[in-house]
C-alpha cells in the first residue's frame, strides 16, 4: 500500500501515523510546506504557493484563493514526482488550507480521505461563546465563505476523519455519515506520570516548590481562557503564598481575532492585575521533553477553553496523570466526567476557578485519584497505537471496497 499525507505543517497530525504505517511495510510519502522536514520511514516532498492572495480579491474569497494556491502547489510538485513512482492508493489531507483540493485530479485511482478539524458556522459554539459584541453582517458572511475549501473536500473525498464527537457534530448533517470519529491518539508510553519529578528548566528552578499550577496553550488568548486564567492567578497567589504558576506558550493569538500591533493579552494581564512575578513563570514554547517535565511536576493543571477544537495538551496532561481543572463545556466533557477524570468549572468565574484549584491543592489523595482515572481513560480509549491501527483498518477497507 502506498499512502500520501498532505499538510502545510510537519509532522502535524500525520507524522507518527505515517511512521506506524511505514513500520507495517507501507510506502509512505508526506507533502508539506515546511522545508528541511524529515522523519524516519517517510519520503518527504515540499510544495509552495507561487504567490500570495491577490490584494484585489474579495475579502470573503481570500481564504478560498489561498487554499487554491496551496492545492495548485501540491499538484505542480506531485505531477513531477508521479513518474518516479508516486502512485498512491490513499491520499490523506488536512482540509481547509487546500493541499488536498485536487487530490482526485492528480491521482484519479486513489481514495481521498479528508481530515476535518473544524467547520465554521456563523453561529458555531466558539463564535456564540467568544463574542461579547454583536457580530456584523460582514463578519457573518465572511465566516460562511470560510468553508468553501472544506465543502469542496467534503464533496470530493471518499471518506473523512475528525478527532472528536464534538467536532463531528459541527459538520453539516448531510456529510456526517461520510466522516468517522477517530482521534489522532496519545503517546501514552511517553506521556506518563513521574511523581518524583522536580521542575528545573534552564534558569527556572522550582525543585523546592510544593505547589505548582500549570497552564499550557499555543498562544495566550480568550479562546484558550488565558485572560480568565490570569484573573484566577491573581486571586490564587494572594490566597496561597507558596504556590508557583508555570505558563507554557507564546505571547500571541493562535485562535481568534488578533490584537493591534504591540498589544497582547499577556501584556494586558500584567498591566491590569496584581501579579507576583516572582511566582509566575512564563516559559515560552518548550521542547517536548521539557513540556513533559512541566506536566509531570504539576500539582494542578488548568485547561480552559471555549467550545472549540480540543487541544492535544489536555489529553497529554490526562495521560501524564495530571489533576485537571477544566472548562465545563461540550468538548471537555467528552473526555472528562466531573469529579471522575478531573474537575469542571465555569471558566468565566475566576473565584470558582480559584476555589477548584485550591481544593485540589489541599487534597492530594483526590488529585492522585483523578489523575489515575484520567490516564486510564486515555489508555483505554485514546492510546495512539490503538487508534493508528483503527485508521489503518479504515484505509484498507476503503481500498478493499474498490477492488471488490
What key attributes describe this structure?
Rossmann fold; seven-stranded parallel sheet; 15 helices; alpha/beta; 15 strands; 2 domains
Specify the helix fraction band: 25-40%
Q: Regions with pLDDT < 50 over 5+ consecutive residues?
A: none
Indicate the proportion of strand residues: 15-25%
Name of the CATH class of the largest domain: Alpha Beta
Count of individual beta strands: 15
Count of individual domains: 2
- Strand-pairing-aware structural class: alpha/beta
Order of helices and strands: EHEEHEHEHHHEHEEEEHEHEHEHEHEHHH
Rounded Rg: 22 Å
The dominant shape is: globular
The name of the CATH topology of the largest domain is: Rossmann fold
Oligomer: single chain
Q: Could you report the average pLDDT, rounded to the nearest whole number? A: 95
Name the CATH superfamily classification of the largest domain: Glycogen Phosphorylase B
Discrete helix count: 15
In short:
The protein has 404 residues and is an alpha/beta fold.
Descriptive overview:
The protein has 404 residues and is of the alpha/beta class. The chain folds into two domains: 205 residues, Rossmann fold (3-Layer(aba) Sandwich); 182 residues, Rossmann fold (3-Layer(aba) Sandwich), CATH 3.40.50. 39% of the residues lie in helices and 16% in strands. A seven-stranded parallel β-sheet has the order 3-2-1-4-5-6-7, sandwiched between helices. Helix 8 packs parallel to helix 9 and helix 8 packs across helix 13. The longest helix is centred in the N-terminal third of the chain and has 20 residues. The model has no long low-confidence stretch (mean pLDDT 95).
